[in-house]
Design brief:
The complex is a heterodimer of chains A (about 325) and B (about 325). Chain A is of the alpha/beta class and about 325 residues long. Chain A has 12 helices and 12 strands. Chain A has helices at about 50-55, 80-90, 100-105, 110-120, 125-140, 145-150, 160-170, 190-205, 215-225, 240-245, 250-260, 330; strands at about 5-20, 20-35, 40, 65-70, 75, 95, 175-180, 210-215, 225-230, 235-240, 310, 320. In chain A, strand 7 (about 175-180), helix 8 and strand 8 (about 210-215) form a beta-alpha-beta unit. The interface of A and B includes residues 107, 120, 155 and 166 of A. Bound molecules: adenosine-5'-triphosphate (ATP), iron/sulfur cluster and magnesium ion.
Chain lengths: ~325, ~325
């Protein structure tokens, strides 16, 4: 096996074909995931997380223009034929989605859908062997009464159960990479923790790479090795999760962490980042965050900062895209620790 | 399910009673005199003949009396005697209904089959040449008057090319098979007369194509619409994410869901054509129920009119029931109760 990382995204730019012309949804995105590691991806709604994941899976419609590079163990996926990509999907890389209520085909039983995932990639398997595997998969994702569940239709299952079924389908061929796009957003709070626990367990047992998109910084802190913070189609900060959360360098990361309710803080002190995410066609010049940034200087409106290693001995391995990554937070406001 | 079917079957006679009553009232309140078709013009001035005719056909009784009498006969299965053919309406219908059924079923098979294929292709290649061609073809099919397309096809295939026979169900020189089902294609086979079977089939092709073309127009547009709807659902992306190829996504996932809303219109069209295929029947001298209905209406032949109404009503009620049952099979979320 080569030494190439499991998945490596280099300078990924995605342009969408919209009614008002080609719009850039994501630009210059870089990250990689190693075997058995978890990358958390965090960012406001609409910042381009899902689009990036769909690009990795090769699931964007053909009129979307993708440039840059996406490598699965060194093999370039950008420009690969849909036929070849379909052979990888569900086999080497799998994905689960935000809404388990709508992600299962309503007219197919649980059994049919799991077996489909198996037989697409394993045409030789006998019907009986596939059934046994389907049953094993339901047990793997800890679904009670798996025999009975197999015969049921999606509408007969709760949201949490459906997400477990989705995970079972994703695990059908023992993928090397699992992408989970906000897998718990649509679920009850109590169920959320169970699903995250399940993902973590599977990731450890199977040593797969996991990419977890989440709005919940607490979850990301608990499960991820690395975190990538995205803003308006760009990665603005990335690094080991504890380092980034302990000592953020990008004002946006800082704002995100500040907006978290803390026990020793009362409600009216809760700081949300003022303003809102710009729409695709209205993304500002220079640093995309500058209209909302407390630390913005004149240069911020003009030059788009590159994603570069932060010169801070306390945060090795952290990259950030801010002109004042080293200075802003710790000098001007004395914020942080 | 069984209880649902039984309950619906029980309700059908009640609904038919309503339909019969309305048909009775309407036909007996139209301007015009049914005697005109019973008594010859010259004898109209002869009061004795007129009175005798009135008594003979029950027209001397009051409307309520006629109504009660009609219902009493109806219960015993007697649909009355046609003023025009002078034979039992039940017998008339039995002679003509199979011809219509044979034509309509053939047209439905052709129209629904090709409509589904065309609809799927149009949705898959949305806004591509195939889609535009399909739209044009469907539009032509559903907007060209049947007498026009029928005559053109007859001219081309029968007169010019001589590939297919002219109007009628069977060549005048062929010996009609013994009446078993009334479907000539089936009765000839049952009689083991393959030459006559070929002849019946050849006669069926053109009228079925003409009628089927209209059906295809409706079905293909509907399938295209609901396919596009379904193709944008989350479970389609999820199916692709597990490695499903294009064909599997289109047929196993999308079409299976897209057909559900199409069932209604298929059932409705079938029922409608039972009495609504008049033009095709006329052009192709097809001795069906539609042309019988037109003759009945033209002659104010009350018993025949009401008889045809009962046939049409039953067709609607039964196809409605069949649609509901098909729905329950096609969509597991629907529970019949
Ligand atoms: N088909 C499309 N046409 C036009 N714009 C689109 C399309 N799909 C997505 N977008 C836009 O692309 C941007 C990125 O979308 P994306 O779904 O990746 O966001 P996200 O970060 O996953 O957000 P969320 O947290 O809400 O899931 C958004 O601004 C969205 O409006
Ligand atoms: S580059 Fe300027 S505007 Fe952008 S985050 Fe840094 S300080 Fe703020
Ligand atoms: Mg998303």
């Amino acid at each position: 096996m080569s030494t190439a990382p499991l998945i490596e995204v280099i300078d990924l730019t995605i342009q969408l074909n919209t009614a008002v012309g080609m719009l850039e949804a994501v630009r210059g995105v870089n990250f990689s995931v190693a075997d058995g590691k978890t990358l958390g991806v965090v960012g406001e709604s609409g910042c381009g997380k899902s689009i990036t994941m769909l690009a990795i899976m090769g699931l964007l419609p053909p009129d979307v223009v993708i440039s840059g590079s996406i490598k699965l163990r060194g093999v370039e996926l950008v420009g690969m034929s849909q036929r070849q990509l379909a052979g990888l999907r569900g086999k080497r890389m799998a994905m689960i989605f935000q809404d388990p209520m709508t992600s299962l085909n309503p007219v197919m039983t649980v059994c049919e859908q799991i077996i489909e995932a198996i037989s697409i990639h394993d045409r030789q398997a006998s019907q009986n062997a596939k059934r046994v595997r389907a049953l094993d998969l339901l047990q793997l994702v800890a679904i009670p009464y798996p025999e009975r569940r197999l015969k049921q239709y999606p509408h007969e299952l709760s949201g949490g159960m459906r997400q477990r079924v989705m995970i079972a389908i994703a695990m059908a061929n023992d993928p090397e990479l699992l992408i989970a796009d906000e897998p718990t957003t649509a679920l009850d709070v109590t169920v959320q923790a169970q699903i995250i626990e399940l993902l973590q367990r599977l990731q450890r047992e199977r040593k797969m790479g996991l990419m977890l998109i989440s709005h919940d910084l607490g979850v990301v802190a608990g499960i991820a090795d690395e975190v990538a913070i995205m803003y308006a189609g760009r990665v603005c900060e990335k690094g080991p999760v504890e380092t980034v959360f302990d000592r953020p360098h990008h004002p946006y990361t800082f704002g995100l962490l500040e907006s978290l309710p803390k026990i020793d803080r009362t409600e009216d002190q809760l700081v949300a980042i003022p303003g809102s995410l710009p729409t695709l066609s209205m993304r500002p010049s220079g640093c995309r965050f500058h209209p909302r940034c407390n630390f913005a200087q004149a240069i911020c409106a003009e030059a788009d900062p590159a994603l570069e290693t932060v010169q801070d001995p306390l945060t090795p391995g952290v990259v950030a895209a801010c002109h004042f990554a080293e200075t802003a937070l710790y000098t001007d406001q004395g914020a942080g620790s | 399910m069984t209880r649902f079917i039984i309950r619906r079957l029980i309700s059908i006679p009640l609904l038919l009673l309503g339909i019969v009553s309305i048909a009775f009232l309407i036909s007996h309140n139209t301007q015009g005199d049914p005697l005109a078709s019973i008594v010859s013009e010259r004898q109209m001035d002869n009061p004795e003949v007129v009175a005798a005719a009135k008594a003979r056909w029950g027209l001397d009784k009051s409307l309520p009396e006629q109504y009660v009498l009609y219902l009493r006969n109806l219960i015993t299965g007697d649909l009355g005697t046609s003023f025009r053919t002078k034979q039992g309406v039940g017998k008339d219908i039995l002679e003509r209904l199979p011809a219509t059924l044979e034509l309509v079923i053939a047209a439905m098979i052709l129209g629904v089959g090709s409509g589904i294929v065309l609809g799927v292709l149009a949705a898959r290649f949305r806004n591509k040449p195939i889609d535009h061609a399909a739209r044009l073809w469907a539009l032509t099919g559903s907007s060209t008057p049947v007498f026009w397309s029928g005559l053109i096809l007859l001219y081309i295939f029968s007169v010019v090319l001589g590939w297919l026979p002219g109007p009628g169900r069977l060549d005048p020189r062929s010996v009609p098979p013994e009446f078993m089902t009334g479907f000539l294609t089936i009765d000839t086979l049952l009689a083991g007369d393959f030459a006559a079977f070929g002849d019946a089939l050849h006669h069926l092709i053109l009228p079925a194509l003409v009628l089927g073309w209209t059906v295809m127009g409706i079905v293909s547009r509907l399938v295209r619409g609901s396919m596009l709807d379904v193709l944008s659902q989350d479970y389609i992306v999820a199916a692709r994410a597990r490695g499903a190829g294009e064909l599997r996504v289109l047929l196993n996932h999308a079409l299976r869901n897209a057909l559900v809303p199409t069932l209604t219109i298929i059932g409705f069209t079938f029922a409608y054509l039972i009495t609504g295929a008049v033009l095709t029947e006329t052009i192709f001298s097809w001795p069906g129920i539609g042309s019988y209905a037109v003759e009945a209406a033209r002659n104010l032949d009350y018993p025949a009119i009401i008889g045809v109404t009962i046939v049409g009503g039953t067709a609607f009620l039964l196809s409605n029931l069949a649609t509901d049952i098909a729905y329950a099979f096609a969509d597991p979320r629907i529970r019949l109760s």
